[in-house]
Specification:
By secondary structure, this protein is α/β, with parallel strands linked by helices. The protein contains 48 helices and 30 strands. Helix content is 52%, strand content 13%. The chain is globular and about 115 Å long.
Length: 1196
């Protein structure tokens, strides 16, 4: 294999030492390969080699971390093949499993688990999933708000009056939760919440107009003013021409004079504001007179008016948005808003404290806690200065190199964490600010930008630019550069697309035609034209139709480069991707259109789970079991498989009950109407549904949610019903996913059907969607439809970038409360007594900044999307009127900051840029309904020609090739029993599949009574549930506090169970299944004593999950030697003694002799031991089973 030839810049990235390095790596510049090569070169440095476990390598996703680990592992293996005796390489291979190649969340969790004592955290903490977190936040916030209502706090009631629209608390709740989430993206959230409204207490003109939020808008105000003056002077010149509209001269002259005076006025400071405000007040913007003049040239008149209107619009925006209030009015407004702003922040702080207290009480944390707890462990304040803690300095000493991938997506908390553990010259950061597209996750690209602007080419802090693109053809690169050279400029964008940012060609492709980038602008047809086109009924049917027809055309003629760049091959569906800004309302519509045209397609986005028919119907049924007097879910159940009623029958039942009641009586619930209905024709359906509901409602109080769901799906036959429907396997997978989520819910601090329904509803409200189950194999020959965010890091030969006419989302700038890290918060002015609501002055200034950030983010999203294409890029948009769209385009070289800032769609960016570069005719094509119709006809003709070719007699060579394919016999029949992923429990079955064990141990204590009808369905699972109960209790026992006197241990255990039961960490069902006597036997054992000592030394670890590759041959002789099986499992407990490990496993099997358990579980514990040794790098000296049935410690 030929050695990789790196560019000079790449070599510098790989070889530079003793410096902090920022790598600005443009799209397709080989970032991952270069980062990996740098790590390998440091590992294998002949003079100063470093062990892999002394690297901290932080990636954005777990998949990226796994890929990085795999690359490093491969490089070490390759080096070992050349020098197998190299001890350093052998050590790297062994240490790789312990290396911190991880996400920031996982690293934070590593820091917390190893230093929990530093922050007083119980080591048995559990990480909440997003659903539980949202539910808990909702409950805590309700309690906080109720406490404020009880206090009769006047300022709080004022806040409620201002921000609870229509008396609904949901608006205020959203404000509080949004501010809380925003504050958590900062290192010290409480400090931010203390001072975010401080500006509202400052009401002098100097304070107001020297504030950062006023200075922030200065560049934009100047751009408005420059445009106003330029356009007004253009209009004035046209009015003065022969045939020009001379009667417009007074108005245009006044406008030009006002613009000129403003241009000569200082825009900054209190004095500048006062002067501009006065000029607007004294110089009204005059309207044009009506009528016509015979001496006027109509074309000149229209042109003069067009220029004047642009200038007038700029002046009006300046006046209305920036200079509409006197300084005194602004000061008065500031004092008024201060009252609500301070109270709002106080409530957020109270919620912050209450939420933290509840989480600490329940011993749970969320993902933002991970970062902040890690920060508390690593950083502290001394005399107002932020300094690393002793723990941080220990990590700093340990880690020789700290490396961060996708650095542009960091936030301030993550930055502080990594700076705490990085040294003075070992911090390596790689990313691309042009690809920072996670603003909605509160990423702060300005962190990257700050270093980009201050790091130099040499010295202690070095910046290296990688701009050679090894992904795309020159046609793609040229079109990308043309767009971003025109639009990506400060302050509209966070950086300038200069020569260092511009993409340079690095890939070599074979010659091929038809790869010029295209911007297809489609005029939206009239309704009758759509019908003629056979376009879909949805909003985006026309665009989807074009894409489908274009794909059909490409499949006939287009060719793409073969792997390795040697020649070309016909395009396949898998070569094509359709990229969308959002899947909602778009993805399924495109998919349906493609499938209608015979094109296999798949939407790869996680959405649509809760709207899937089978999920909705089951959730409706659960809601009815919780409370049948809910008309919407009950109607859904009635008209679903569970009820079998038609819509007409449901209406008939409701109407029959309505007729019996007085006109002024309350509307009956549909459930009550069904109970009262006495019609014979629907009697059977009625009785069947009511009996079904009653039967399962009886079980709700004592059957776990997952078990209840299983009963419903099995007993009603619903699983079989949906499996038999079109897309049955996907529907079945959705229901299995619902079962899994029910299991996850049961591990939370909430229990019961009522809370499960709340849990699901909260997920829906908070847009926590699991996504429909099922995904194609990565090599499946289908067209993929995905969001631009999902495509980041991927590449495709042909990219369709669709929905370019969709409006840019600037809604963030219109929120009731705006928040910014530097500017604090901005609120609306709301006066309920005067019935006045308007955007506050500070908020208007902040909204300008946030709008600018939205525009800049949209540019970066567009950059990511365009750079996914390797060979061909086709962008599409639908517009109401193509001619008007073309008329709005600027002249070449005329693109201004204001025009960029005013862009409302990505199409505006593209058209403005290509017009600015004089490339419109090269890239842009306008299509009408007739053009689309012609495309469809052409595709059908090509299809017919292809069919005719199929009818021709095949050649002998082709016939022989087909016969050979069909005669193929698979050469490895033994692989049919091989599975790629298994659990340790399955491995136990392999070793013990002919011996089930005799359950002879008799319980001396009575079992809790379980009704017969439940026993019939659950008897087989009681043993499993009992085992889970014992495992859970053993996990919750704080062994460090275990009394040494056996007489006190029973009382200790009872208290542990009672405390965890009340805290919600242990279910009542589990508590009832556990026998104190048996547990006490364990606590009195020498094993428990050893665990107590280990826990006191911080060396006891419980419930350790793992994944591990095991050679298939070790599991069964018939399996091939070179295959590997991925094994997963959870280790009950292990602890460290004298530098070696002791592994223990709890068993509740009812057996008569220890040999039975050894036979059953030897394989399982062998796998656990091997996994532990790989994970920790330490030897397992002892493997133990504790049998609760035998009350015995058994060594294996």
């Amino acid at each position: 294999m030929a050695a990789v030839e790196y560019t000079e810049e790449q070599k510098k990235v790989i070889n530079l030492r003793d410096a902090n390095i920022l790598v600005s790596a443009a799209a397709g510049s080989g970032k991952t390969a270069v980062l990996t090569e740098r790590i390998i070169s440091l590992l294998l440095d002949g003079k100063n080699p470093v062990d892999i476990d002394r690297f901290l390598i932080v990636t954005f996703t777990k998949a990226a971390a796994a890929e990085m680990r795999e690359r490093i592992s491969g490089a070490i293996s390759d080096a070992l093949e050349k020098t197998p005796e190299d001890e350093h390489l052998q050590r790297q291979s062994a240490l790789l499993h312990n290396a911190q190649i991880t996400t920031i969340d996982s690293f934070c969790l590593f820091v917390i688990r190893n230093n929990f004592g530093d922050i007083g955290l119980d080591p048995g903490f559990r990480i909440m999933d997003e659903g539980e977190k949202k539910l808990l936040m909702k409950d805590v916030l309700t309690e906080v708000l109720e406490s404020y209502y009880e206090r009769e706090d006047e300022d709080f009631h004022h806040l409620v009056e201002c921000y609870c629209v229509g008396g609904k608390e949901t608006e205020l709740e959203k404000l509080i939760l949004d501010l809380y989430a925003f504050s958590m993206s900062m290192p010290y959230p409480m400090e931010y919440l203390e001072c975010a409204a401080a500006d509202y207490g400052k009401d002098t003109p100097e304070d107001i107009f020297d504030a950062p939020w006023w200075k922030e808008s200065e560049a934009y105000r100047k751009s408005l003013l420059d445009t106003a003056l330029k356009e007004s002077m253009e209009s004035l010149a046209i009015c003065q021409e022969e045939g020009g509209p001379a009667r417009y001269l007074p108005m245009v002259s006044a406008q030009a004079e006002l613009a000129d005076k403003l241009a000569q006025t200082k825009l900054s400071g209190a004095e500048g504001y006062q002067n501009c405000y006065r000029l607007f007040a004294e110089n009204p913007i005059l309207a044009f007179p009506g009528g016509k003049s015979k001496s006027e040239d109509e074309e000149l008149k229209a042109l003069a008016k067009a220029h004047r209107d642009v200038g007038k619009a700029c002046l009006e925006e300046l006046r209305d948005k920036f200079y509409s209030q006197s300084p005194e009015e602004i000061a008065e407004e500031s004092r008024y808003i201060s009252r609500a702003a301070e109270k709002l922040l106080e409530v957020v702080r109270e919620f912050f404290k209450a939420f933290a207290a509840v989480k600490r009480e329940k011993n749970v944390i969320d993902f933002t806690d991970m970062e902040h707890f890690a920060l508390d462990i690593l950083m502290k304040k001394e005399n107002g200065e932020i300094v690393p803690t002793k723990t941080a300095l220990e990590y700093r000493e340990h880690f020789a190199y700290v490396m961060v991938d996708e650095y542009q997506d960091s936030n301030y908390v993550q930055e502080y964490i990594l700076k705490c553990v990085a040294g003075d010259n070992n911090y390596f950061m790689v990313g691309d600010i042009k690809q920072s597209i996670y603003r909605f996750r509160l990423a702060k690209p300005e962190i990257f930008l700050g270093k980009y602007n201050t790091f130099a080419e040499t010295g202690k802090d070095v910046r290296i630019d990688l701009n050679k693109n090894f992904r795309s053809r020159s046609e793609v690169l040229d079109s990308v550069n043309d767009v971003f050279e025109a639009i990506m400029m400060p302050p509209a964008a966070s950086m300038e697309y200069d020569e260092k940012a511009k993409l340079k060609k690095g890939a070599v492709y074979p010659e091929a035609e038809g790869n010029v980038t295209e911007m297809i602008v489609i005029e939206n047809p009239e309704e009758e034209e759509k019908e003629a086109l056979d376009a879909a009924e949805g909003k985006h049917g026309v665009e989807a139709l074009y894409v489908a027809e274009r794909i059909r055309s490409l499949m006939q003629t287009h060719r793409v480069a073969q792997k390795g760049g040697k020649g070309t091959r016909p395009i396949e569906y898998r070569d094509i991707v359709i990229l969308l800004r959002s899947m909602e309302g778009w993805g399924e519509e495109f998919k349906q259109m493609l499938e209608e045209k015979g094109i296999p397609a798949f939407c790869t986005e996680k959405s649509g789970y809760f709207s899937a028919m089978e999920v909705k119907e089951v959730l409706n049924f659960l809601q009815v079991l919780n409370n049948p007097k809910q008309d919407i879910p009950f109607y859904g159940v009635m008209t679903s498989y569970f009820g079998g009623f038609t819509e007409e029958e449901a209406a008939q039942i409701k109407a029959a009950e309505m007729e019996k009641r007085p006109v002024d009586a309350p509307t009956p619930f549909l459930y009550d109407a069904l109970l009262a209905y006495d019609g014979e024709c629907l009697k059977e359906k009625k009785e069947r549904l009511l009996e079904r509901i009653a039967s399962y409602r009886d079980k709700v109080s004592y059957v776990k949610i997952r078990d209840l769901l299983e009963l419903i799906l099995r007993e009603t036959g619903y699983m079989e019903y949906v499996t038999a429907m079109p897309g049955g396997q996907k529907r079945k997978a959705n229901l299995l996913l619902l079962l899994e989520k029910a299991r996850v819910f049961e591990s939370t601090s909430y229990h019961g059907l009522f809370h499960f329904v709340r849990y699901i509803n909260q997920l829906k409200e908070q847009d926590v969607d699991y996504g429909e189950a099922g995904a194609p194999d990565e090599n499946a020959n289908v067209v993929r439809i995905m969001t631009i965010h999902k495509s980041k890091g991927l590449e495709f030969p042909v990219c369709f970038l669709c929905g370019m006419g969709k409006k840019i989302n600037k809604k963030d700038a219109g929120n009731a409360v705006l928040a910014d890290t530097q500017l604090g918060i901005g609120l609306d002015y709301i006066n309920p007594l005067e019935r006045v609501k308007r955007s506050g002055f500070k908020k208007r200034m902040m909204s300008h900044k946030i709008t600018a950030e939205c525009i800049a983010e949209e540019m970066r999203v567009l950059y990511v999307a365009m750079t996914r294409a390797k060979e061909k890029l086709i962008m599409t948009a639908v517009v109401p009127d193509a001619e008007k769209c073309a008329d709005k385009l600027p002249e070449k070289g005329a693109l201004s900051l204001l025009e960029i800032s005013k862009a409302s769609t990505c199409l505006d960016f593209i058209l403005q840029a290509y017009a600015d570069r004089g490339r419109l005719t090269d890239y842009v094509h306008f299509l009408t309904a007739q053009d689309l119709q012609a495309m469809g006809i052409a595709a059908e003709v090509k299809k017919e020609i292809a069919y005719q070719k199929l009818e021709e007699e095949p050649s002998g060579e082709l016939r022989e090739a087909i016969r050979e394919k069909f005669a193929f016999v698979y050469g490895y029949p033994e692989l049919k029993g091989l599975y790629t992923k298994t659990t340790v429990s399955e491995l136990k079955k392999l070793a013990y599949e002919e011996h089930d064990g005799v359950l002879m141990f008799e319980e001396p204590e009575r079992e809790a009574y379980i009704p017969a009808f439940v026993r019939e369905t659950e008897e087989g699972s009681v043993g499993t549930v009992r085992g889970s109960a014992y495992h859970r209790v053993m996990e919750l026992v704080p062994y460090r506090n275990l009394p040494e006197e056996s007489s006190a241990q029973e009382e200790f255990l009872q208290k542990v169970i009672a405390d965890n039961l009340s805290a919600g960490r242990l279910s009542k069902e589990y508590a009832d299944l556990v026998r104190i006597k048996k547990c006490r036997g364990f606590l009195e054992s020498p094993l428990a004593g050893r665990m107590r000592e280990a826990d006191r030394n911080g060396l006891l670890f419980k419930e350790k999950a793992f994944f591990m590759g095991v050679p298939a041959k070790e599991l069964r002789d018939s399996f091939p030697e070179k295959e590997t099986i991925l094994v997963q499992g959870v280790i009950d407990v292990y602890f460290e003694e004298e530098g070696e490990l002791v592994l223990a496993d709890y068993k509740t099997d009812r057996v008569s002799a220890e040999e039975e358990l050894i036979k059953r579980y030897r394989v399982q514990l062998d796998i656990y031991a091997r996994a532990l040794e790989q994970i920790t790098g330490k030897k397992v000296k002892e493997k133990i089973i504790y049998s609760f049935a035998l009350n015995k410690v058994i060594s294996i």
